[in-house]
Amino acid sequence: MAIHKCGWCVGDTLYEHYHDTEWGVPVYDDATLFEFLILETFQAGLSWITILRKRENFREALDNFDYKIISNYNEDKLESLRANPGIIRNKLKIMATVTNAQSFIKIQKEFGSFSTYIWNFVGGTPIQNAVENYKQAPATTPISDALSKDLKKRGFKFTGSTVIYAFMQATGMVNDHELSCFRYDEIKTSTP
Question: How far apart are CA 48 and CA 15, in angstroms?
Fold first, then answer.
């Protein structure tokens, strides 16, 4: 018997593996949250599969997404990133990565962790949606609107509501697996 998966991932091995192992799983670790945030900002205007295919290149180019190192990137490093064919070489997104790392650290200092800050927007518990078909999932919500607005106020770039809702889906702040997907119940029952 075939296992049902969300329709958006079917047919691509990399996509299916990401769907089966990462997407929608609640993330509370600051380093992982930062990685997802940066990947989502680079994804703005592009397809997620494009980013997934370049993920290892991003890891290598961005010092394994170490926000402390990234926050101190100098112009030489930025120039090398803009010349790196393995990543998305958008000048503004590359500059935003440094700004976002600096803002990320400020939030950690204020709230104790970025995780504490971000999870407060959903009351500390993932929202369990009831999506029958992935095409019915929203692109934004009032929560992603509020989070986006607050992040921008704190200096973050490329964090519009659509990007932030995709981040919330990826990091399990919302469970948007299709109801018939085998991961929906797995994630729902593993959630505190």
Answer: 9
**Gap between the Cα atoms of 41 and 23, Å rounded:** 16
C-alpha–C-alpha distance, residues 174 and 29, integer Å: 16
Catalytic residue status for 56 = no
Distance of alpha carbon 120 from its chain centroid, rounded?
17
Instruction: Give helix 91-111 / helix 75-82 axis angle, nearest 10°.
Output: 130
**In this predicted structure, what is the pLDDT of residue 31?**
98
Q: Which of 23, 40, 119, 184 is catalytic?
A: 40
- Among the listed residues 191, 90, 101, 112, the one whose alpha carbon sits nearest the alpha carbon of residue 154: 101
**Per the residue annotation, which of 16, 18, 22, 28 is the catalytic one?**
18
Task: Name residue, tokens 């200092």.
Answer: 109
Instruction: Tell me how far apart the terminal alpha carbons of the chain are, to the nearest angstrom.
Output: 30
Active site residue 40: yes
- Whole-angstrom distance, CA of residue 94 vs CA of residue 6: 31
Q: Based on the residue annotation, tell me whether 48 is a catalytic residue of this protein.
A: yes
pLDDT, tens digit (0-9, with 9 covering 90-100), for 103-152? 999 999 999 999 999 999 999 999 999 999 999 999 999 999 999 999 99
Can you give the C-alpha Rg of the chain in angstroms? Answer: 17
- Give the phi and the psi of residue 4 in degrees, each rounded to 5: -80, 135
Q: How far apart are CA 167 and CA 30, in angstroms?
A: 13
